[in-house]
Design goal:
By secondary structure, this protein is mainly beta. The chain contains 3 helices and 12 strands.
C-alpha cells in the first residue's frame, strides 16, 4: 500500500525488455540504500518488487502485462520517474490509499501554466469515470492529486509549486501518457452497492 506522496525522483539506469521477461534498473541515491530484496516500490504509480540492489541503484522484474498496461513499457534510459516505497504500518497517510495497481493510462490534453500553479487536463477512459469525483483523489504517475473538475472524459488537476518541483509532473507535455489509479474506496463502494441491488 502506498500514499501517493513521492519520496524521490529516480532516473532509469537500464531497461532490458524481451517479449516476455524484463527488468528495470533505477538510480535513486536517497532510497536505494534502504531497499531490501522483495520490497515493493511504486514507479510512476506502478508497484514493482525489488529483485536486487547495488549501491545507489536497484533492479525490479517487470512482467509483460505490466509493460502493456502501464507506461513502464515505454521507459528509456535517462528518463526520470516518481518513486515511493510501500507505506509502513502506523505511518502517516498524507495522500490517499494507493495500491500501485494502475487502472489505465490517460493522456495529457491540455496544460494551462500559471505563475503559482499549473492546471493539467487529462483524458481518461470512460469506464473510470464512475470512480472519479470533483474534490476526490486520483493518482497520476504515482502522485496523489485532488480532482479540480471533471467534464465528459477529461479530468483537471492543479499542480502546486511543490508538486511541480518534487515530482515528474512538472515536466508533463501535451500528448504524454500517464498512469492512472482511481480511488480504492470508490471501487469497494461500487462493489458493495452492486451486490445489494
Amino acid at each position: 500500500m502506498f500514499t501517493g506522496l513521492v519520496e524521490e525522483i529516480g532516473v532509469v539506469a537500464a531497461v532490458e525488455y524481451s517479449s516476455k521477461a524484463g527488468s528495470l534498473t533505477v538510480a535513486s541515491p536517497r532510497i536505494a540504500p534502504q531497499l531490501s530484496h522483495g520490497e515493493s516500490v511504486a514507479v510512476n504509480g506502478a508497484c514493482v518488487t525489488v529483485a536486487a540492489t547495488d549501491g545507489d541503484t536497484w533492479t525490479a522484474d517487470v512482467m509483460q502485462v505490466t509493460r502493456q498496461a502501464t507506461t513502464l513499457g515505454s521507459l528509456h534510459v535517462g528518463q526520470k520517474v516518481n518513486l515511493e516505497r510501500a507505506m509502513e504500518l502506523g505511518g502517516r497517510l498524507g495522500g490517499h490509499l494507493v495500491q500501485g495497481h494502475v487502472d489505465a493510462q490517460g493522456e495529457v490534453v491540455g496544460i494551462d501554466a500559471g505563475e503559482e500553479w499549473d492546471d493539467v487536463s487529462i483524458a481518461i477512459p470512460r469506464d473510470l469515470l464512475p470512480y472519479v469525483v470533483t474534490k476526490g483523489s486520483l493518482t497520476i504517475d504515482g502522485v496523489s492529486l485532488t480532482v479540480a473538475s471533471l467534464t465528459d472524459n477529461h479530468v483537471r488537476v492543479s499542480l502546486i509549486p511543490t508538486t511541480r518541483q518534487d515530482t515528474t509532473l512538472g515536466a508533463l507535455a501535451v500528448g504524454d501518457a500517464v498512469n492512472l489509479e482511481v480511488d480504492l474506496i470508490a471501487k469497494y463502494v461500487e462493489r458493495w452497492v452492486g451486490e445489494r441491488d
